[in-house]
Write a structure and sequence with these properties.
By secondary structure, this protein is an alpha/beta fold. It is built from 23 helices and 14 strands. The strands form 4 sheets. Strands 1, 2, 3, 6, 13 and 14 form a 6-stranded mixed beta sheet that branches. A 4-stranded mixed beta sheet has the order 8-11-7-12. Strands 4-5 form a two-stranded antiparallel sheet. Residues 15-25 have a biased composition (Low complexity).
Length: 523
């Protein structure tokens, strides 16, 4: 799968199973490329019989209003916030007037927990939409299978892309999936609780964040810091951000081969750092090991925790529902980590055009690309970005010039929107940022590994040995990749050691100066 705030954001990101709509990432439900390929292979593209196509005609397309010439269908997963959905549908309808061709456009809203099955079935039945929202990992997967079109030429019409979106869909020298928007993980601070504990400003570094959380836990009846901790999409996304801020990655690519870094000394450090919330500093709430991002959000919104690392849906909902917690909340970029960066996990979505051999409506490829271009023009995006604030963020610099970034026409505080826009330029996405390209197996891996939260959830909830947990997770990933490529990634039988971690992590490992010492069960 892929990681869109895959909701909460887990964030929209976009691909792994989520526990609630407030975690609507384009990282949402389990997706199996192997399962699709086995089925499609057995049928064959040419062997998808007319009978099967007839049985599946309209699957996932109940609202499709085909009228004949010019019919055009697209799917979006933006069905969690009614105002956002309506704005996107109204804006998409404008394509009928924008295009020089006759277009009868239908928008179908499908939830992330249904779309993977519906993509597979509609591909088999050769009645896909002309364009669909997805994550670029899905687009790369389907592109490698010959199901979706590359959009390289359209992508290269622009040269102002943010760093991570610029290679999010890169595979086999083509761009697959046109970046639509990104979402980022956020840092929330309840200033009332921080001030009660003696802190009058929002923490700007890891050291300040952890020390403030310890003070809140000691001085108040509430908890210092929370994030998801269960085996969950949002948990893996927060962990990955911490790994990048510590100088590490989950994957790399050298020459023509992939390598797995999930069991590096830096990865071990980030797992121990996160586990320290419970095991060393006692700043997380009781029962934290079983909490997902939705549980963490509820605690924060009820005023029971001072700081939260989570997706952006909570911010929007706190304001739209007029909650008191919004009045005392500061939203800021992720505090600076050991490498001096504020990097956060990037979720989000792209738009991808299916090949005409698979679509329900036969339109020129150029028309599908024209629709993608239309939906991502700055002038067009002003039609729905305000309703999607503060979750939808630009993928390139020109889009910073639209509302609500230049003129805030929402109820969201200016400072929250500014903080999220600042964060948008400093993001990373597992499997993509290190290698700076994508691969067909990455979406499947993300779903199978619950966004790589398997090891940390075992450490926190099942007392798994941290070294063994990260090695087992990494070796499982190596096995999966070896089954998808024409070379073997050898298993690792050596345990990572903190003494081999980057020098910038030494203060955390040893507890020097004002830096809290991490939990180290091997001391």
């Amino acid at each position: 799968m892929s990681g869109t705030n895959m909701p909460n954001e887990s964030e929209t990101d976009d691909s792994v199973a989520q526990s609630s709509p407030s975690q609507s990432d384009a990282d949402a439900e389990d997706y199996s490329r192997r399962g699709f390929m086995e089925t499609a292979g057995a049928m064959g593209a040419a062997g998808a019989t007319a009978g099967l196509a007839g049985c599946l005609d309209g699957f996932g397309s109940d609202d499709t209003e085909g009228t004949g010439e010019g019919d055009f269908l697209w799917w979006t997963m933006r069905g969690y916030i009614p105002e956002e959905t309506a704005a996107i549908e109204d804006t998409a309808d404008g394509f009928e007037d924008y295009s020089d061709e006759e277009v009868n456009l239908t928008t179908n809203v499908i939830t992330w927990d249904q779309v993977f099955e519906q993509w597979t079935s509609s591909i088999q039945g050769q009645n896909t939409p002309n364009v669909s929202e997805m994550a670029n990992e899905h687009a790369v997967d389907y592109g490698a299978s010959g199901v979706v079109q590359p959009n390289t030429e359209l992508y290269e019409d622009h040269d102002d892309w943010y760093d991570t979106p610029s290679y999010w869909g890169l595979y086999d020298d083509e761009k697959w999936g046109f970046p639509w928007f990104i979402e980022v993980r956020n840092f929330y601070a309840n200033m009332d609780l921080l001030e009660e504990a003696g802190h009058d400003s929002i923490p700007e570094t890891w050291e300040e964040m952890i020390n403030s959380a310890i003070d809140v836990t000691d001085e108040t009846d509430e908890n210092g810091l929370v994030s998801g901790a269960a085996q969950d999409t949002g948990t893996g996304q927060i962990l990955y951000g911490a790994t990048v801020q510590s100088g590490g990655e989950f994957f790399d690519h050298d020459g023509d081969e992939w390598s797995v870094e999930l069991d590096s000394p830096t990865s071990l450090f980030s797992h121990l750092w996160m586990a320290s919330f419970q095991e060393e500093w006692d700043i997380a709430p009781g029962g934290w090991a079983g909490m997902d991002g939705t549980d963490a959000e509820q605690l924060y919104r009820e005023g029971n925790v001072a700081m939260m690392l989570n997706g952006g849906d909570a911010a929007n909902e706190m304001v739209s529902q007029g909650e008191d917690i919004a009045e005392v909340t500061e939203l800021a970029p992720i505090p600076e980590g050991p490498m001096g960066t504020n990097t956060a996990f990037m979720g989000g979505s792209c738009l991808s055009a299916f090949e005409s051999d698979y679509t329900q409506y036969d339109v020129d490829d150029e028309l599908s690309m024209e629709f993608i271009q239309y939906m991502t023009l700055p002038d067009t995006m002003e039609g729905y970005f305000p309703e999607a604030a503060p979750n939808f963020l630009p993928v390139r610099e020109a889009q910073e010039e639209i509302q609500p970034f230049t003129e805030n026409n929402t109820e969201i505080p200016d400072e929250w929107i500014d903080a999220r826009l600042d964060q948008a330029e400093d993001t990373a996405r597992y499997g993509i940022t290190g290698p700076q390209l994508s691969a067909p197996f990455l979406g499947d891996l993300e779903g199978e590994m619950d966004a790589y939260s398997v090891a940390i959830s075992g450490i926190l909830g099942a007392d798994s040995d941290p070294q063994e947990a990260v090695v087992d997770q990494a070796n499982h990933v190596r096995d999966t990749i070896s089954g998808e490529v024409d070379y073997d990634l050898p298993q690792n039988d050596e345990m990572p050691e903190l003494e081999d971690a980057p020098d910038e992590l030494t203060d955390w490992i040893e507890g020097n100066g004002d830096t809290p010492q991490i939990w180290n069960p091997y001391d």
